[in-house]
Structure formats: structure tokens, C-alpha cells
Amino acid sequence: MSRPAASRRARRVTAHLLPRTSAGAIAVTGGDGTWSVPGARVAFGQDPADAARAAARLSPEIPLRPVDCRTEFATLPGPDGPVELHIDRMYYTAPAAGAADGALAPAEALALPARPSAPELLPAAPAHPRPRLERVAAYGVVTDAADRVLLSLIAPGYPGAGTWHLPGGGVDHGETVRAALAREVVEETGQRGAVGELITIANHHRTGEIGPESDDTEIHAVWVFFHVFVAEPTRPRVTETAGSTIDTAWFTRAEVAALPLSATALRGFAALTGTAAG
Prior knowledge:
Layout: E1 8-20, E2 26-28, E3 39-41, H1 48-56, E4 65-78, E5 81-95, E6 102-104, H2 106-110, H3 118-121, E7 132-143, E8 149-154, E9 164-165, E10 168-170, H4 177-189, E11 194-209, E12 217-229, E13 245-251, H5 253-257, H6 263-273
Parallel strand pairs: 1-5, 7-12
Antiparallel strand pairs: 1-3, 2-6, 4-5, 7-8, 7-10, 8-9, 8-13, 11-12
Domain Nudix hydrolase: 132-273
Cofactor: Mg(2+)
GO molecular function, one term: hydrolase activity
């Protein structure tokens, strides 16, 4: 008897638009219980916000507001055996334009079956000759009741070495974005926090970077930022070994302003203040 084929893992990112009516509801299309909102697969290097605009046929200049990130898991039959598909879905909102078939509360719209569906996302992207690395990462603006901010120091040998960073990191296969952030906060700082509201979703696309296979790697990352609150702060300590974090500490807001910050931290703080990151 032949052994069943081992399953293969695959990751996908999608972007969706929730058109918001003047009454605060979400405009939906379809009917007979098959309501849907615009969505599309995010191509390598593509800003998820651009993918959401294109799916909804919006002009590039129309601003979108990130509202949520949800993770979906599916095991599907593939040409070479089962595929364990991990889908991170980015949701945005913008004022609705034109007529709609119906309207739902925001929570109901977020709970709709997402399109493109898992089977529609199964086909792999065309092969590319250049080494590529794609990932989704979650970062937290971590605070306590005294309004202190928790940061981690990037270790030598890692991008951004010597700068202070928002706790967080890559989302593992089979892990939700919020669960990944809670895990990273514990590993990098020893603190247990409650992951709260989404702050923003950012696109990071670079070429000529150091990767696992080449020093000339094209990198595409989707960074998802959340508020995290630590109700019972303790003395921070790095619990991971041989990782990218060498130190961690609580800082006042005034102290943070004087620190060398990583590009990711600058992006997260800029989203909070409504300023452009450098």
C-alpha cells in the first residue's frame, strides 16, 4: 500500500474593502443570502491597500482606513497532495460610492465568507528567477497604565541592529496575527498583554536585501500594527534565545522621542500621530 502524500504548506494574503454608508453600515452586493464585499489576492510587492482599491474599482487617490486583519485556514487537495493553506485577510473601509444591493452591520460584513475563496487562492504564483521572501508580521505599540511604552533592542547582525523596535515579528504558519503578536511580546519582553485595536497596515517592499538564500533577495512584508495593553507590568526580560532581541525596557513618551528607532517603530508611531514616517 502506498503512503499518502505529505501535505504542503502555502501562504496567501488578500485585501478587502468594506464600503461604508453614511449611516455607518457596510454596503454589500449579491442577494439570496450570498452577500459579498470586494476582495482580491495581493500580488508579491503589492500594497494591500492598492489591491483593495482595485477590487472595488476605486481611484488611487481615495484614502482607505485599515480596520481589521483576519486569518483563515484550509486544507485542500492539490496536484501533488494536500495543501495546508494559510490566508491572512486585510480589511479596509472607505465611503460607499453608488447604489448597493444591501447593507449589513460592520461585524456582520466581516463575518461574510471572503472572496476570493480558499480554493480560488490555491494556485501558486508564477515562479520568479530572483530569490524572494514574503511574510506577514505583527507589531505592537505596547503600553501600561502609566502610559509607558515597551520597546525591544535589535541585536547585532540583524537589520536595524542597535535601534529600538516595537515588540513583534513574523506570523508563523497556522497562527493568527493577534496570537503571533501576543507570543512575540512574551518572547521579546516577558510581558503578557492584551492585543487590542488595529492601528494600521503597512506595506514593506525592498530589493537587494539579505535573505535566507541570497544577499540579493527581494522582500515583501505586510506589517500589521496593534495596540497592546499590559495590565500587570513587570521588569522586562528577553526570554527568547539566539533571537533578534538583545534587550528590552519600558520608556516614558519623552524618553522614546530621544531613542534611535527602527524603521518599523517609526512607521507604527507615525500612524498613531498621523505624520509621515521617515
